[in-house]
Amino acid sequence: MSEPTTASAVSEEPVSEEPVSDTSVSDSSVSAGQDATEAVDSPEAPAEPTAPPSVPLDEPADGVPHVVETERGLTEAAAAIAAGEGPVAVDAERASGYRYGQRAYLVQVRREGSGTWLIDPIACPDLAPLDEAIGRAEWILHAATQDLACLAEVGLRPRQLFDTELAARLLGLPRVGLAAVVEHYLGLALAKEHSAVDWSTRPLPQPWLRYAALDVEVLTELRNLMGVDLALQDKSEWARQEFEALLHWEPTERVDPWRRTSGLNTIRSRRGVAIVRELWYARDDIAQDRDTSPGRILPDAGLIAIATQAPMSTDDLPRGHRAIARYGRQWVAAVKRASAIDEADLPPRTLRSDGPPPARSWADKDPVAAARLNEVRTDLTTFAEQHRIPVENVCSPDPLRRVVWRPPVARDVEGFADALRSHGVRQWQADVVAPLLAKAFETHPDPA
């Protein structure tokens, strides 16, 4: 989870760190626009049928289940899930922006013939019995990468899965949030007003439990309908490869996570950067000790304000946030640690990237590479529009730039496919992109 971004002023308000996912993809369908124009221009064109209003989904079919909080209850839940049939809908609720880390504070599972179960992983920290009960059955999740890590922490790991958010992207849906996808396929309105609450709260309020149960209520029906559409659009194999890759997904461990501190770019000296680093780790230690989100201890703007003044005593600390005074000794100790670092050991202001330079500079550095990249981008955009899929889901920008900037020795389709796969590109993506790369390199050969 990224550190909170804040304004330049030191704010007294806590900063929410709930991840904001990109849940919309622009719909650039030309034909749809033409149809709409023709309908307006032609007096004989029939009126477009009005979509029926969505039906609120505000109560689970079987009511809101009790929360499993004992080992006996967990054994009962596992037995029920084992006796069910078909895939298992799975979800987890975290306390992002409230607690330290990304652990799960509620796990929801639902299966045909088993009903819905809400399990407290704080009271039952080892869900291995549930994992064994699910076995090799397919998991259904929405936005799997948000939950896989915290579910693995409590012993839940899928053997196969279906991600309804990723499927929505592959199918070209204009909005891919769970509520939007449910409305698109089922005509149901799924409320999401409790998505960013503090799920570490105990006891959990009944409206929150209702929300949690509804999150898995229709995932199986949704998965079946989306599976049909994937087949109709000849994208089943694309989805299979994407879901298979998710089974091996792990969160990226960031190098120097403190470098994501908002406002770090305003610090002009290496010594100042070292102070920010020490302050960041001091805040992280406090947050971990208090089991509180770091942004609720002190916003990034507070760290930058302290680093700018570099106080050597608590009397010299900047004013404006009570946490600066409350943890004054820790902040001053961090500044002193940074001040004692030898000049040669100070961290650089920026890290050198192992990737190619920014694409905007290619025209000056290597015009041929720039022309190749532009051609492939244009062809990829055309492919994406024709197949109604976001271009970034056909190929992420980073591996594409890397292969164009440092091409393989064999500049044929197979050579480019191997190079793309070495950067984590799926086989179906390599099958699409490699021929475009080979064509671009043939059109724009190396200068004589």
UniProtKB/TrEMBL annotation:
SMART domains: 35EXOc, HRDC. Coiled coil: none annotated. It holds the Pfam family HRDC. CDD domains: RNaseD_exo. Keywords: Exonuclease, Hydrolase, Nuclease. Residues 1-13, 21-31 have a biased composition (Low complexity). Residues 1-63 are annotated as: Disordered. The keyword Nuclease applies. Gene3D superfamilies: HRDC domain, Ribonuclease H-like superfamily/Ribonuclease H. Residues 269-345 form the HRDC domain. GO terms for molecular function: 3'-5' exonuclease activity; nucleic acid binding; nucleotide binding. One of its GO terms (biological process) is nucleobase-containing compound metabolic process. This is 3'-5' exonuclease.
